[in-house]
Amino acid sequence: MMYLDSPAGVGMSYSLNKSDYTTGDLKTASDAHTFLLKWFELYPEFQLNPFYISGESYAGIYIPTLADEVVKGTTEGSEAKNQFEGRLREELLCAIQRDLNSFVPFALGMGLISTDLFEDVSAACHGTFWGKVNDVCQENIDRVRWVMSMYQNL
Length: 154
Hints:
Enzyme class: hydrolase
Order of helices and strands: HEHEEHHHH
Largest sheet: 3 strands, mixed
Number of helices: 6
Strand content: 5-15%
Number of strands: 3
Mean pLDDT: 79
Radius of gyration: 16 Å
Shape: globular
GO molecular function, one term: serine-type carboxypeptidase activity
Helix content: 40-55%
Keywords: Carboxypeptidase, Hydrolase, Protease
Distance between the termini: 32 Å
Number of domains: 1
GO biological process, one term: proteolysis
Low-confidence stretches: 89-93
């Protein structure tokens, strides 16, 4: 089991770089994802073990965004090969296939995408935003990811 305090400055974590203390939900997910990639690179013997992401409280925001980063990297082929099984939050197991389908409604609820974009992607994807989707759906999902990425470096 591995524990990660996140973002920098929470719990026992710290950074020598002052800019690391200016963060947000998506940057926190991106930073944690970078950490995981480096960790799996340093310890490849763990890549084939079942892998879950867990957290409590505000991790209810961080865990889905981090899970999205991990799955996005895996499906794009840039992710270290791992056996990502799902996420745990407050002792509740969520299957990754079911859980990641909520990232588009989550983005709308967080105010990260417009209602128009939500309606476009919903119409193109027929409620399925994860896994093997048609080309028009994927183009709309890519639009959602692009809009969400604009918030990472604020």
